[in-house]
Design goal:
Layout (H helix, E strand, L loop, with lengths): L5 H17 L18 E8 L6 E6 L16 E6 L4 E8 L2 E3 L10 E7 L5 E7 L8 E9 L2 E10 L8 E8 L2 E2 L4 E4 L8 E5 L17 E9 L1 H14 L20 E15 L2
Parallel strand pairs: 1-15
Antiparallel strand pairs: 1-2, 2-5, 3-4, 3-6, 4-5, 6-7, 8-9, 9-13, 10-11, 10-12, 10-14, 14-15
Length: 276
């Protein structure tokens, strides 16, 4: 599974958005210096119960007026340690990318990520892999929304008894990953069957981008720990402007040491279908 660099892009502009929001109600024109923001390391790390998915991407934020290319940071030392178990060193495979293809996680166990940057800074994070839940079915329905008909992918799956189960859905249409962040927890569905409709409003409104008959759909289904759910939820609500009342801010991260980003130990399940 490829770690998505759009996380770094989103985090880069948040500091500048925060500054702008502080002056949004002022009538006086103020020239803001947006070119000297402190650069921060961004860690995007995943570990799943499937071989070949243990991967860490290390980049840095950029100033507001710089381009949206984020070269990887080489020369770091990256390890993942199982609580009460061994430590695995992830090998560099390309600039800023560190992998351990044979490393897999186990539900119920906690894992500690440690990243030592080339500058000597150390970043750590702990994530516990949840109980694995499998999707039962994925299917498309016709929905009427915002004055138009659209096809929407549905995901049905059970929810284990006991609060704290959280899920992330990653949608691919004809091989293209959709940008919408789709998450859910069981605060209002504990122990019951869950149906999630994957509305996608983050892409262009071109007809070519809309789901239609004959499209191939793949859903990657991740069972994530509550801290990672909080990360994605806060990213939606603040970083992407999902909450009109919220001041833009960095998402709530499980990273320690001053880096942005996240470390997610999660289970993985995937299903594919052709839209009828």
């Amino acid at each position: 599974m490829r770690i998505q660099s759009y996380t770094t892009k989103l985090l880069t502009g948040i500091g500048s958005l925060l500054m702008l929001s502080l002056f949004s109600s002022c009538e006086k024109v103020i020239d803001l210096n947006l070119n000297s923001a402190e650069k921060k390391y961004v860690v995007e790390a995943v570990l799943s119960d499937i071989p070949g998915q243990a991967k860490v991407l290390l980049t840095q934020t950029k100033d507001f007026d710089e381009d949206n290319t984020f070269p990887g940071i080489s020369g770091a030392t990256v390890t993942i340690t199982e609580n009460g178990g061994g430590t695995t060193t992830l090998a560099p495979t390309s600039p800023g990318v560190y992998e351990a293809p044979a490393l897999t996680g186990v539900s119920g166990r906690s894992y500690t990520l440690r990243v030592t940057a080339p500058t000597g800074e150390v970043f750590t994070a702990v994530s516990t892999m949840p109980q694995k839940v499998l999707m039962d079915t994925i299917y498309a329905t016709d929905e009427f929304f915002f004055g138009e008909n659209m096809k929407v992918v549905n995901v049905d799956h059970p929810d284990p008894v006991g609060l704290g189960n959280s899920y992330r859905y990653i949608q691919y249409i004809n091989g293209e990953r959709k940008t919408a962040i789709q998450i859910r927890n069981d605060d209002y569905s504990d122990g019951r069957r869950i149906n999630s409709k994957l509305f996608d409003f983050d892409d262009d409104d071109d007809d070519e981008d809309k789901l239609k008959s004959g499209d191939q759909v793949r859903i990657d289904f991740l069972c994530i720990d509550p801290a990672i759910y909080k990360y994605w939820f806060s990213l939606i609500r603040s970083a992407t402007g999902g909450n009109q009342q919220a001041t833009p801010a960095n998402p709530v991260s499980n990273m320690q040491g001053g880096a942005l980003g996240y470390f997610s130990a999660h289970t993985f399940h995937s299903k594919t279908m052709i839209v009828p």
